Amino acid sequence: MFTTSHACSVHTMLLTCSQVYEAIDNHEGSFCAELLSFKHPHVANPRLQLASPEEKCQQVLEVPYDEMVAAHLRCTYAVSNHDFVEAYKCQTLVVQSFLRAFQSHKEENWALPVMFAVTLDLRIFANNAEQQLLRKGKGKLGDMLEKAAEQLMGCFRVCASDNRAGIDDSKKWGMLFLINQLFKIYFKINKLHLCKPLIRAIDSSNLKDDYSMAQRVTYKYYVGRKAMFDSDYKPAEEYLSFSFQHCHRSSQRNKRMILIYLLPVKMLLGHMPNHQLLRKYDLMQFADVTKAVSEGNLLLLNEALAKHETFFIRCGIFLILEKLKIITYRNLFKKVYQLLKTHQLPLDAFLVALKMMQVEEVDIDEVQCILANLICEGHIKGYISHQHQKLVVSKANPFPLLSSSS
Amino acid sequence: MNNKIASRRVSHSRRRGQPVERDWRQHHNQGVWREVQEERRQESIPRGVCLSMCPIRELQDREAQNLLHRFEVLSGTERERWPRADPSGVVKEYARPAAGKDSTRPSDLRPPAVLLKTVFYLVDNIAASPTLRPWTEVYDFVFDRLRSVRQDMIIQRVSGADCVAVLERTVRFLIYASYRLCGEPLRLYDPRINDTHLQESLSWLLECYTSGKHPNQEEFQALGLLYNLGSSRATQHTMELPERIRSSPVMHLALSVSRAFMERNPVRLLRLAHSLDFLQSCALHRHLVTCRRDLLLIYSHGHSSKNCRFPLHKLSHILALDVPLTNQLCQAHGVEVHGDSVVFSKTTFTEPEAGKLQCAHFHDLVDRKQRDLTVGSIIHGCT
């Protein structure tokens, strides 16, 4: 027994299916992508939100497109019910069906926009579904995202192994987008080591400088963050600087995010940001940190880190900022050297300096250790004489520039 | 490519006109098969009814096949051809899940109260036993039986206080074992296997802590941080804990140790290590090797001068080792010792040959703390 609204739904759905059919037939990737994307307003249309659209889809579309659209429609239904776990499951089917079709497209890549749309939605639903489960006290953080990542890897492999098509029709153009999606997942679930093979894939690709600037900016942002995590500060600075410089002027939010990671790296290399920059991007949390480090003021540094602890921890940079302590020691000790104007500095002078900075429970043995570490890292040129309880520094440039010794 | 996702064939049968149940269709999509299974299982979580440490069936089977462990045998019957089972000593062993084997039979599963009783038995009567020897064998038995306890917990989805009580003792046991058996030959004890299970149990325990109140949480967050010293993942996790946990004295100390490690200040680290209790020292001890190596490296560079001498006794004090061991350590790292002085040089420092340095020889710092602590009190946590 059909009601009027049911008839309307059927009609709307058949219309959508025909549109998809046309788009596929004409290889209109972008249009097809819109029809399957949750960014497009059609998903809010209650006439499309159906629990069992399979039959109608099969009437219009071939396998596997029928399953793909049917799953997409079931997904809109699930989303309208705020059931993101179900939405995620449906989206999984969408991606799976899509991939079957995609693989059968020999030497053509018109469907790339569709891939971008459906994989993006997959990741977003995985995120939402996890949040939903966690709020109910079920599910483990990262489970759904990991599964989504596996599917994305499936798509990635299809793209990466497309060796036959000419450069214009190659599926390889889809690689960087997928990699960026995978990076987002791996960073969220804290499995950064999984980024390595992806980075290798891009490094060895001849397309790496030809992807869109937006994609490259995102890519370098994540690679820069990974380098930070691995304590490779020079490469981290290069990547993040590129990302910051080439990030579009209008994306203030993104520029700010890049800066949050670029600033600590630059500070570790001895370059302090000016207040103008911090104010422009609303990052005044770094102001006290910067001041403390450049003055060698350990007390202020500890206070600044404590004051903005929550913010720094949430961004995952607290631990890196703590590394600035070594730079701060260096700057503090340089002041001692400049004050005493001699090349044979009593260890006691450094101990006094530290005590003035209210460093807890520090004794002369620790002072020796800190100094020895600075020498080992190349921040001080000289040696310690335990017998004379003195630090003997080189007459030429005993405190080399930070950027040269990092 | 996975061909189990049948395409043509399935769509034909679907086109035969029967309205298709969503469930049925999902069965043929391997990706969500797991999810459906998961849903079904959640509706009927197995609940164990076995009230003894070992299901009767398994006890009878193993007794009949002469597969009882030495510790499970009725005393007096050990020499017989078919030793008899001691019902108060047989414990369900770990069995790998296998196809066709139903591990969810209620009569084979022990409810949480029995699991906790089992753990107590394993700790008090086996691990802490003053007579059972050698301890490598004690460890093997307890390790396996604890693994079986965890398996029962997983199958029955045990959570909350029951789960925590079991896991806390498991983690303490594995940490203690990592210290006590350090240096044993590989055929008797594999530190990597111990580490794997320790990390798994610790992760599970920390996850349990995310809901509800648990009085020992600070103790284990600290143990986790010390055991995983230097790990960005573990450190970041600790930084994200609520302020009131991080500011507890035990966490404060662990964080100070961690900070000293990250800043590469081994002098400070070794000094702070003196304040750790026995179990914390067990958790930390494998990192002391790196710590001491770092110290010798840093000092080799910082004190690198032909004419300078560093007193050996001072170095041994900083390293928290006696003089002969300090000598040994220096030699292994290419650091020259002349009489009672050390001559540091950045050119002579070397990494020790693989296998040359045995961590176990340098356990003094930890050993001293055991004093009159019993194994039982260490594992139950009433020190």
Automatic annotation (TrEMBL), chain A:
Pfam annotation, one family: PCI
UniProt superkingdom: Eukaryota
GO terms under biological process: poly(A)+ mRNA export from nucleus; post-transcriptional tethering of RNA polymerase II gene DNA at nuclear periphery; transcription elongation by RNA polymerase II
Molecular-function GO term, any one: double-stranded DNA binding
GO cellular component: transcription export complex 2
Domain PCI residue range list: 217-398
Sequence similarity: Belongs to the CSN12 family.
Protein name (Swiss-Prot/TrEMBL): PCI domain-containing protein 2
Source species of the chain: Oncorhynchus kisutch (Coho salmon)
UniProtKB/TrEMBL annotation, chain B:
GO BP annotations listed: centrosome duplication; spindle assembly
Cellular-component GO terms for this entry: centrosome; nucleus; spindle
Compositionally biased tracts (Basic residues): 1-17
Start and end residues of each SAC3/GANP/THP3 conserved domain: 53-337
InterPro entries in UniProt: SAC3/GANP/THP3, SAC3/GANP/THP3_conserved
Lineage of source species: Eukaryota, Metazoa, Chordata, Craniata, Vertebrata
Transmembrane residue ranges: none
UniProt-listed Pfam families: SAC3_GANP
UniProt protein name: SAC3 domain containing 1
Region named Disordered: 1-23
